[in-house]
Design brief:
Number of helices: 9
Strand order of the largest sheet: 3-2-5-6-7
CATH architecture of the largest domain: 3-Layer(aba) Sandwich
Structural class: alpha+beta
CATH topology of the largest domain: Cytidine Deaminase, domain 2
Strand content: 15-25%
Helix content: 25-40%
CATH superfamily of the largest domain: Cytidine Deaminase, domain 2
Radius of gyration: 21 Å
Number of domains: 2
CATH class of the largest domain: Alpha Beta
Largest sheet: 5 strands, mixed
Length: 247
């Protein structure tokens, strides 16, 4: 079997439920209404709860929309943890539901994409921190492991990238021949591997190291340079090249 399962053995999840309601922003006092506050003073003065209240549009039984937003953040243990949830998890919280959950998830995805430079011709990956700066916002809040292969030219300029595999909460399966096939199709001079550890542990597992060596050996045979393999764990990362694990 050619596929390799990457296992993040330190994964932990905590599921929490809350019991919020159904009243709109209009039920708040005028000076407490997040929309009016935004229009008068700008978005930057709003709290996280107020910004989420605008997205939710209405509250839930027994609580207005601002109280519902505060409860949601509390149950999720903060904004960053909320951003890591998928829409099904968010929708299971009482008073949120499918539509509100999808709205929140779409907003978080837009925020991640804003962190990426849309002009790929100017994206150069000479250092691990540059790779993390581009892919970190995409991967750091995810609950599932995602494996990305970035294709670069001889000047380390990004050509394109593929999400090769999306796994579960603590593992994903990667097929090295498929990685090499796509690298050749994209006419890459070099490739950079990037995947996340949802647990927050940024150390490479044995499976991570073995997979890196297999792809490294295969890439050399077809004249492609394996530039680096980054493991993203929240706001931390590890470069296997910097660790001396590519030689």
């Amino acid at each position: 079997m050619n596929e390799v399962a990457l296992v993040d053995t330190h994964y932990e999840t905590t599921k929490k439920e809350t019991a919020p309601s159904r009243q709109g922003v209009r039920n708040l006092l005028e000076n407490e209404q997040p929309r009016e506050k935004l229009m008068q003073n700008g978005a930057d003065v709003l709290t996280e709860s107020e910004l989420i209240a605008i997205l939710l549009r209405s509250g839930s039984k027994g609580m207005n929309v601002l109280e519902t937003a505060r409860s949601l953040l509390e149950q999720a243990n903060g904004l960053h943890q909320l951003a890591r949830c998928d829409w099904e998890e968010i929708s299971r919280i009482k008073g949120i539901g499918k539509v509100k959950a999808i709205t929140l998830m779409a907003t978080f995805e837009l925020a991640r994409r804003l962190n990426q430079d849309s002009d790929k011709e100017k994206i150069v990956f000479r250092q691990p921190e540059e790779v993390y700066g581009y892919f970190g916002p995409v991967l750091r809040d995810l609950h599932k492991e995602v494996f990305i292969v970035a294709y670069v030219n001889s000047a380390k300029i990004l050509l394109s990238y593929d999400k090769i595999s999306i796994g579960g909460s603590n593992a994903t399966i990667v097929d090295p021949p498929e990685v090499l096939r796509r690298s050749v199709m994209n006419r890459a001079h070099g490739i950079i591997l990037v995947h996340n550890h949802p647990s927050g542990n940024n150390r490479p597992s044995r499976a991570d190291i073995q997979l890196t060596k297999r792809i490294h050996e295969g890439a050399k045979m077809v004249g492609i340079d394996l530039v680096d393999h980054l493991i993203v764990a929240g706001y931390q990362y590890t470069s296997l090249k910097s660790e001396g694990l590519l030689s």
